[in-house]
Design a protein that fits this description.
The structure is a single chain. This protein is of the alpha+beta class. Helix content is about 50%, strand content about 20%. The strands form 4 sheets. Strands 4-8-7-13-12 form a 5-stranded mixed beta barrel. A 4-stranded antiparallel β-sheet has the order 2-3-1-16. The two termini are about 35 Å apart.
Length: about 575
């Protein structure tokens, strides 16, 4: 029968298991509810399972510019490529660095791979183009992370021709008034609707393409439609006029008719986001040009200064998207400042965009892997079959060797599987986790890790029964030793997964992440479900009395007789001797 538990221990044994089981079940229900509430009821699949295109791009510096390949520039490139891919209408594309020189672009099925390669496989193209005409296009849209197209620009000299320190909208504009400090004659036009009456002729700046064709494109362009934004200006040479889209500070889409590029991104020597502590302009972007760029900039600003709005505007165009459109009041050269109601992040983003156009950094296409949806489905099916076979073998082993105890182990596996599924479904929209084939392999390996924890605990309990203890004391005495073993084993597995995640890139990280996640869940399940459930089952006669199908039959386990039964005859003999002496 074994020694009875103390009152305090009995109370904890009766209450603690129920609380632990209730806690993990509440957590499972809450996570499941969150999964359905988010609308993501299945894990997000990687391209090797769902199908898609994976592009590996390697950074290539120009001669003597090896230092250009650094974390800041690579992160800027990733940001620009993300905008390119998102422009294709792909909502779940992944763009990430791999090591110090490579960028991996994963585009799910449903996107033209050739179009995607064209969008992400070339160096960012930055141009300064004169604005010929500008109009509002559709309703308000969510602003991009870049700077407002209506940002102002100056050089910091602080003396304008008329001393004007702020730009004000016309009464009929309806746009939000935003003060724009001006210290050199390069100033943003805050009146997006002004061009509606300008009606400028495209030939004013010498378009390199047929004027009638450009006017037709401009008239038909609707920048509120993503497909038209992507196609606007596609394939146009720098020497030709084009159409483009951009957003003003209020989030309204604007469409632009632009002349040939007068200044290229390579003409920008340096761009920095700085905070103006003296002039009170807040965050601004300073621009420096190369010698040739300074001459080009002076020539075109001299021409634009003589024109009326919007033909005195300069559109800063990145990959066909207008990120800013300051206007000019006099010829400029050397350097300039773009100032306005910038937030710190907006100023830094614009500075990165301007700098990136001048970096000696380009990308070559190292590899392109395309997985069809059919092949991805076959790989997913094969992975699920492999997992089912592994799980079936584990269950058969548990049934054969542990009999009744296998009921507890199977329930624990089901709880672990449910938690893994729900958490993976939630991690897709929250951190972008995608379940790929290596991640499926990690989940299959985790089945063995989880089963191993059960086996360690069950064997410790069986060892205590072999020593002659009854089931309830055996469970409580076995748990501390089993707990230590489980924690050490899972710590080693988690450490291996963490190291693998840090030192590897790409799909192998999916294996490491899944292995680490399931290892943590193994600890949670063993502590909050398996042990409490076995404690409760130890009170049931089927297990407590050691039924032959319970897996805890003392005879089958070769248990020793209880120690106290061997001591009673000795005590009786001693008592008899004492009575005779008396």
């Amino acid at each position: 029968m074994g020694a009875p538990l103390k009152t305090g221990e009995t109370g904890r044994a009766q209450c603690s298991p129920g609380r632990s089981l209730a806690l993990i079940l509440i957590a499972l229900v809450a996570l499941t509810g969150g999964m359905f509430a988010s609308g993501h009821t299945t894990p997000r699949l990687g391209i090797d399972l769902a199908g898609g295109t994976s592009i590996t791009l390697a950074a290539v510096p120009e001669a003597g510019q090896e230092s250009a390949i650094n974390k800041t520039n690579m992160d800027t490139a990733v940001s620009i490529m993300e905008r390119r891919v998102n422009g294709l209408g792909v909502s779940e594309a992944e763009v990430q660095t791999q090591g110090t020189r490579n960028i991996i672009v994963n585009i799910p099925k449903g996107t033209n791979s050739e179009q995607a390669r064209e969008q992400v496989g070339t160096t960012a193209k930055l141009y300064f183009r004169p604005v010929l005409q500008r109009d509002q296009s559709g309703a308000a849209a969510t602003p991009d992370s870049g700077a407002s197209p209506s940002a102002s620009a100056s050089t910091g000299s602080g003396d304008d021709a008329d001393g004007d320190q702020a730009a004000s909208p016309t009464p009929t504009d309806g746009a939000t008034s935003q003060g724009r400090a001006v210290t050199e004659a390069l100033k943003a036009d805050p009146t997006p609707g002004a061009s509606a009456s300008a009606n400028a002729s495209p030939s004013a700046s010498g378009s390199g393409k047929d004027d009638g064709g450009l006017e037709a494109q401009y008239a038909a362009l609707d920048c509120t439609k993503p497909a038209q934004r992507v196609d606007a200006g596609k394939g146009v040479k720098p020497t030709e006029g084009t159409v483009a889209c951009g957003q003003d500070s209020a989030g309204q889409w604007q469409k632009y008719l632009l002349g040939p590029a007068e200044v290229e991104g390579g003409d920008v020597d340096k761009a920095e986001a700085v905070y103006d502590t003296q002039g009170g302009a807040g965050w601004k972007v300073t621009l420096g040009f190369t010698d040739s760029g300074s001459k080009k900039f002076a020539a075109i600003t001299g021409k634009l200064a003589q024109k009326q709005s919007p033909q005195n505007e300069f559109a800063i165009v990145l990959d066909g998207n207008v990120v800013s459109n300051p206007y000019v009041r006099q010829a400029l050269s050397g350097s300039a400042e773009i100032s306005g109601n910038f937030k710190q992040e907006e100023a830094k983003n614009l500075a990165n965009i301007l700098s990136y156009g001048s970096l000696p950094l380009s990308f070559r296409e190292d590899s392109v892997t395309t997985v069809t949806a059919a092949l991805g489905g076959e790989q997913l099916q094969a992975g699920l079959i492999a997992g089912a076979i592994g799980l079936a073998l584990v269950v058969l082993y548990l049934l054969f060797y542990y009999r009744g105890l296998s009921f507890i182990a199977i329930l624990s596996l089901l709880v672990s599987a449910a938690l893994t599924y729900v958490i993976m479904s939630l991690l897709g929209p929250t951190i972008g986790f995608a379940l790929n084939l290596p991640a499926v392999c990690g989940a299959i390996v985790a089945i063995g890790i989880t089963a191993d924890s059960f086996i360690v605990f069950f064997e410790r309990v069986r060892d205590e029964i072999r020593e002659g203890r009854s089931l309830r004391p055996a469970v409580e005495r076995a748990w501390p030793r089993a707990r230590r073993t489980v924690l050490v084993s899972d710590f080693v597995s988690f450490l291996a997964a963490a190291v693998l995640f840090v030192v590897t890139v790409g799909k192998v990280q999916g294996f490491a992440f899944t292995l680490g996640l399931t290892t943590v869940l193994d600890v949670v399940v063993v502590f909050f479900f398996t042990k409490p459930l076995l404690t409760l089952m130890a009170r049931r006669p089927f297990f407590a009395r050691g039924h032959k199908w319970s897996g805890l039959d003392p005879k089958a386990l070769g248990a020793k007789p209880p120690l106290r039964r061997t001591r009673r005859p000795v005590l009786a003999a001693v008592g008899a001797v004492e009575s005779k002496e008396a």
